Prior knowledge:
This protein is an alpha+beta fold. It is about 40% helix and about 30% strand. The protein has 10 helices and 14 strands. Strands 1, 2, 8, 9, 10 and 11 form a 6-stranded antiparallel beta sheet that branches. It has a 6-stranded mixed beta sheet with strand order 7-6-3-4-5-12, covered by helices on one side. A two-stranded antiparallel sheet has the order 13-14. β1 (about 5-10) and β2 form a beta hairpin. α1 crosses α2 (about 35-55) and α9 (about 255-265) runs antiparallel to α10. The longest helix has 25 residues, at about 285-309. The relative contact order is 0.16. It is found in: Cytoplasm. This is 33 kDa chaperonin.
Amino acid sequence: MADQLIRATAADGGIRAVGVITTRLTEEARKRHKLSYVATAALGRTMAGGLLLVSSMKRPESRINIQIQGDGPLGGLVVDAGLDGTVRGYVGNPEIELAPNADDKLDVGRAVGKNGYVYIVRDVGYGYPYSSTVQLVSGEIGDDLTHYLVSSEQTPSALVLGVFVDKEGVQAAGGLLLQILPKAATDLALIELLESRIGALSGFTPLLRASQTLPNIFEQLLGDLGLNILPETQLLQFHCGCSFERVLGGLKMFGQAELRDMIQKDSGAEAKCEFCGQTYHATKENLHELIRDLNQDEDQLSEKIGKVF
Length: 309
């Protein structure tokens, strides 16, 4: 099944529901970063969460950045997700592995740590990005992002995230977001009903592994509440916008002296993108060209200053 996002409403527009399947993109992240089982689960949950959170934004260029920094051995993680369906991310310590927790599941909470912060930046595509910080609740990602929604956006929400990974790779990954919108926020019976149904779920990935589709899952949860599944299905993918040109632009900022030092000591330069793991190699010829560009920029600046004075 392709990685995808679908949206739905229920209760006459009082409930907003979004579901994502992210199995393939999570597997790509696992391979790119050589992630352990528990690191795969942590990053996979956060990438699914990022795609769910950004789905409520309006402008096509909108993006959300999630940074989670806990006191666990994972060393923190970063995810960047866009309304265009692209997502990327990385963890601080991709090789960390832990014994299963008391429920015989991957111990994401202990890997992330229970003490720390979730830092979220919403870039709406213009003006200054909106940022918010909340404390970690459990380190399990879903609980922590739900806490963010409730405390920072004052929106009653339920977020279910899951990743199932074995020796063959990621077999299922994705998540579900349910939100009570303002028109139904005072309907306590409706809120209690949704809480009980979410609480009755055995998890999200068991449903996917049982060949349940997102419409099937929505039907089980909201079918008797006037469910309306929106017709558009958005495809999702792991994608990073890094490029060799951007790497050269970054190297240029080191200045002429540092570039000459790179040429003399290493006969070039190497840069690795943290988000996707891609490694770029700049030859000494590339660095000489950057130095020529910097010289030209300085000459043009001197000429402009001379005209002013």
